[in-house]
Amino acid sequence: MLVSKIFNFHAAHQLTEYHGDCERLHGHTYKVIVTIDHPVQEDGLALDFAVLEKLVWEKAVGLLDHSFLNDHMKNPSAENIVVWLWRKLIGALPVKLHEIVLYETPTSFVTYRGA
Ligand SMILES: [Zn+2]
How many angstroms separate the alpha carbon of residue 102 from the centre of ligand 1? Predict the structure, then answer.
């Protein structure tokens, strides 16, 4: 069963290795969709939404909220941010991480499934 939670966070970034709108310091409201893959248990749940929400926020997304992304990683493009989130979550979740989708704008997003 695939189980997902949606998160939003606000952050600033500056892409130093890119020439375009994201070259200058500015912010985005990012949307993240984290999906895990786990069999449904006897209680009827694959993973409690509340547990997923708490873990993802505390171990990954919350660390970036209202921050300057360049303080956390080099060249924080959507691609680099989603890999950063994946690495934070892969060891923090008690179930298999299936996919992370990161929206930088309402119409621009990346999808990562590891490797
Ligand atoms: Zn940007």
Answer: 13
